[in-house]
Amino acid sequence: MTVHDDELSPESPGRRRLFLGIAAGAGTLVAGSLCAAAGRLALAPLARAAPGGEGRADLGALAGFEATRAGKAGPLEVVFSRTAEDGYMSRRIKARAYVIGDPAAPSGLALLDTTCTHLGCGVSWSGERKAFLCPCHGGVYAADGSVVSGPPPRPLARLPLVVEGGRLSLDLTRLV
Amino acid sequence: MSVKEFLESRGGLVTAWRRFADEPTPRRRAWLYTLGSAALLVFVVQLLTGGVLALYYAPTPDHAHESVKAIETRLAGGSLVRGLHHWGASAMVLLVALHMLRTFFSGSYRKPRELNWLVGVALLLVVLGFGFTGYLLPWDQKAYWATVVGTKVPAALPIVGAPTERLMAGGPGVGAYTLTRFYALHAVLMPLLTAALVAAHLLLLRRHRHAGPASGPDPREPFFPYQLARDAVVGLLVVVALFWLAARLPAPLERVADPSDTSYVPRPEWYFLPLFQLLKYFKGPLEPIGTAVIPGLAVLALALVPWLDRSAERRAGARVGVLAAGSAASAAVLALLFLGAADRPPAAPSGLDEAAAPPPDPRLIGGAASYEKRGCASCHGPEGRGGASSKEGFGLVGRRFSLTGEALLAHLKEKSPPPPPPPSDEEGGAYDPDSDLPSLTAFTAALEEGPVALAKLSPGVRLGGAVIEREDCRQCHAIYGTGGKRGPELTRLAGKRDKAWLVGHFKEPKVYVSGSRMPSFRNLPEAELAGMSDYLLALP
Question: DSSP state, B248?
Answer without folding.
Answer: H
